[in-house]
Amino acid sequence: MAILDIRQLVAGMLTFSMFIMLGNMIKKDHFDSAIVDDLNFANMAGSRSSSDRSLRDALYQWEAWKDNVETGEPCWNKSVQERWNQPKGYITFSLTGGTHLHFSQVANAVLIAKQVKATLVLTDLGGKNAGEKRDFGDVYDVHKFMSSLNGTVNIAYHQPPELSAKKLPIARIPSVISEGYVTANIEPIFKRKGYLKIETYFPTPYMTKVDGMNNMNSVSCMVAFEALQLQAGLKEFIDSVLEKLHTLSQESHGRFIAVDWRAEMLGTKRCQGTTATEKKNCFSAQEIGQFLNKIGFEKNTTIYLTQDGWHNSLDALTNIFPNTYTKESLIPLDKARKFSDFTNVIDFYVCSQSDVFVPAFSKLFYSSVVGQRIALQKLQILDPAQATSADAKDYISSYISQKNHWAYSCFC
């Protein structure tokens, strides 16, 4: 009986040992394969040879695609709504330049109409060519705009007949205004005339943070990140462009980089004016390619450029990253004519929603895209002018690393 008990004990121990070994094998196979998958993905974003790519390098390249900071929740709905009084007079406004300028232009008009208790009249948009006009609803969702601002400002979709024959006085104002500015510079003109057209200019390409959330800031936030949305047909088309870019990026798990690069910018005074003592703020196509290669993006990375059409200097970029596309190569021929007037809109929203955004120039387009990306919590914005290291983390835009973009004022 004792011998049988010993045999049973030994058999039990052997069985238990086998279960432990089997468990270790399953654990090792499962978790090791997961680690390998992560490193394989990280390696796809690196350009160094596998022989000298360390685990640390691979993890850095993984970070090049990854957002690490949450923006927060919207703050603007807390204080913006108020009881609306009977409006007196009309405020209209100019929408000029690209989509990236419209947020400030519309916000200023809303702020002024609200403060002077006027009706805001929606305006036509300037077309791609001089003299061309488009209806506000050709680009933006009118119902969304009016419903979002209901209770904040009275809105007229069409210009009232009594304004049609009048030459409206024009108030030219900076992109950032205060209640005091409106009281001193706008209200006296409006009280005399009862109508006014607002034109916004941009004295600086930077959009730095506004401290605190007052009523003026709150309205601007609501316009930029809630009220001003694309109309359905245009949004659907841009979504199809984004989907195509994700499909072309299968080797990097559907991720792609958007680069704001335009050949005509290289010849501007702003680019030519950089000196050895100033931070470089313009980059050639070749320099952009070398930058992305230096921080570890692999040759098969998909890149979207805001350039209209192809330019000979892009050959230097495609030698490094052959999967480089402009919008013309992504739009079907049967839709090219219909959407040819919306090139800036396409560029703006593709750059706002790409996995990584790289600005080749420091200008308003860059600042406006950053605002939208903050709202979307897409914070991978790499500024080539930030540093000289080979670590992508050192190139995170100062708007993000220092949280000094005005859009941060809109999120708690």
Defining traits:
single chain; 412 residues; alpha/beta; Rossmann fold; 2 domains; five-stranded parallel beta sheet; four-stranded parallel beta sheet; 17 helices; glycosyltransferase activity; carbohydrate metabolism; GDP-Fuc_O-FucTrfase; fucose metabolism
What would the average pLDDT be, to the nearest integer? Answer: 81
Reported for the largest beta sheet, the result is: 5 strands, parallel
- Which band does the percent of strand residues land in? 5-15%
Distance between the termini: 75 Å
Task: Catalogue the unreliable spans.
Answer: 25-60
- Name the structural class: alpha/beta
Strand order of the largest sheet: 5-2-1-7-6
Helix content bin: 40-55%
Q: Supply the number of structural domains.
A: 2
Number of helices: 17
Task: Categorize the overall geometry.
Answer: globular
Predict the CATH topology of the largest domain: Rossmann fold
Helix-strand string:
HHEHEEEHHEHEHHEHHEHHEHEHHEHH
Radius of gyration: 27 Å
Family: Belongs to the glycosyltransferase GT106 family.
InterPro entries: FucosylTrfase_pln, GDP-Fuc_O-FucTrfase
GO molecular function: glycosyltransferase activity
Pfam families: O-FucT (PF10250)
Describe this structure in words.
With 412 residues, this protein is an alpha/beta fold. It contains 17 helices and 11 strands. Strands 5-2-1-7-6 form a 5-stranded parallel sheet. It has a 4-stranded parallel sheet with strand order 10-9-8-11. Strands 3-4 form a two-stranded antiparallel ribbon. Strand 3 and strand 4 form a beta hairpin. It is globular, with a radius of gyration of 27 Å.
